Amino acid sequence: MLYVSYGSNMNLEQMDYRCPNSYVVGNGKLNGYRLVFNTHADIIKTNNENDFVPVVVWNIADADWKSLDMYEGYPIYYVKENVNVILDNGKIEEAIVYVMADNRK
């Protein structure tokens, strides 16, 4: 399953430690979102196509989701949303992204 990372999960060494069975698919962007900081990095939907967040897209192995969920504090601190990410090659893919839970914002 594809995963869209921003913030600290763009760090290849950190992700290799957390998700050793996963790999980078490429770079991309989320149109209509903006990066904000609510104590930690978060993204918010703006619906403005001029807003975008640069991201790294990962293929997360089934065995690595539990570790990633724990790191993100899922489902208490961050929740998962499905998004369409535009890869640098122009291809649009469906992926999962973590966004801060509403009660944390």
Explain what the structure shows.
This protein is mainly β. It contains two helices and seven strands. The protein has a five-stranded mixed beta barrel. The protein has a two-stranded antiparallel sheet with strand order 3-4. The protein is globular and about 35 Å long. The termini are far apart.
Keywords:
7 strands; mainly beta; 2 helices; two-stranded antiparallel ribbon; 5-stranded mixed β-barrel; 105 residues
Topology:
Blueprint: E1 2-5, H1 12-18, E2 23-31, E3 33-38, E4 40-45, E5 52-59, H2 65-72, E6 78-87, E7 92-100
Parallel strand pairs: 1-7
Antiparallel strand pairs: 1-5, 2-5, 2-6, 3-4, 6-7
What's this, in brief?
The protein is mainly beta. It contains two helices and seven strands, in the order βαββββαββ.
Following the backbone from N to C, one meets helices and strands in this order, namely EHEEEEHEE
> What do the pLDDT scores average to?
96
Helix content: 10-25%
What is the percentage of strand-forming residues?
over 45%
Q: Poorly predicted ranges (pLDDT <50, ≥5 residues)?
A: none
Computed structural class:
mainly beta
How many DSSP H or I helices?
2
Largest sheet: 5 strands, mixed, barrel
Beta strand count: 7
Shape: globular
Our measurement of the CA-to-CA distance between the termini, rounded to an integer number of angstroms, reads: 27 Å
Sequence of strands across the biggest β-sheet: 1-5-2-6-7
Cα Rg: 13 Å
